[in-house]
Amino acid sequence: MKATYTFAVILFLALFNLLITGSAQGQDEHLNELKKNSVYYEFLGTGATLFSLHYEKNIKQFEKSSLNLDLGVGYDPPLHIDMNPSYAFPLSLNWTSGIKNKHFELGIGLTYNSGVSQQIATGGKTKSMDALWTSFRIGYKYQKPEGGLYFRAGLTPLLRVKKFTSIDHDDFFDKFLPFFGIGVGLTF
Q1: Which letter, b or e, does each residue of 122-146 get, where b requires 16 or more Cβ atoms within 10 Å of its Cβ?
Q2: Which of 129, 136, 163, 183 has the most CB atoms lying inside 10 A of its own CB?
Q3: Which residues pair with residue 134 across a beta bridge?
Q4: What are the backbone angles phi and psi of residue 8, rounded to the nearest 5°?
Q5: What's the whole-model pTM score?
């Protein structure tokens, strides 16, 4: 568990260092300056929920790339009568690179889930798991520099950093979620 957390922190710091030092061009010489705000709905993704609403802010613009901070809130409805709803709160740092409308995207973040939808049946009762996850993103983003339609799709695997609920059952999918995400929204 400690190795997973250490790996996530090192990866985050390396990505952050690369992004900050990678392009030192002046703010006035950008070839592809994007609008600064986006709001989008994402299916699965870093929230690991069926429904999540996100706000993304462009916090640093480079010549051909940008650094974005993404904050969301997610919800999973109960899938059957014995289950409770699940809530998620993802926060991530994403690097976007590309020209005009088409962009490659890398990201890392943290997601807190309360009542993870992957609930464990024990003795006829269903228990929920509250956990903190490290989220990753590698994908494609369609975003016009002048704003408007926003679309993203990619792989968003999650690694569990900390489990806050004591559950006797602990299998592979309690520690790793091999998710993907599809998002649609607006940039302004």
Answers
A1: eeeeebbbbbebbbbbebebbbeee
A2: 183
A3: 110, 159
A4: -65, -40
A5: 0.78
